[in-house]
Amino acid sequence: MRLTYWIFVFGMSLSLPAMANCSFRLDDGKLLRCGMSGIEVVDRLGQPLLKEQLTLGVSTNSVERGQTVDVWSYKTRADMGGEFLLSIEFTDGKVY
Fold first, then answer.
1. SS3 call for 57
2. What pLDDT, on the 0 to 100 scale, is given for residue 95?
3. Is the pLDDT of residue 19 over 60?
4. How many other C-beta atoms are found inside a 10 Å radius of the C-beta of residue 45?
5. Closest to 24 measured CA to CA, from 68, 70, 87, 69
6. Domain map (residue ranges) of the chain
7. What predicted TM-score, i.e. pTM, was given to this entire model?
């Protein structure tokens, strides 16, 4: 029993920092996190103020292509108060 407890505590201590780096809590308590689809983001925040599409690593070679990243920008409030300009990056349709 004691060993199981310590394994659980150790596992949580490793996973919590990773989850904290990729999440944002809104003032209504809803959480935005990596891996969410665009539909989930629109459900939580509504339509963005601005949508941009960026191409990273552009190549002149027709075989290699740059990676396309969509960036959605919102003016929102966080759970800690205050207004924020929140930019969300999407790669392959998921929050990155």
1. coil
2. 94
3. no
4. 17
5. 87
6. 24-95
7. 0.68
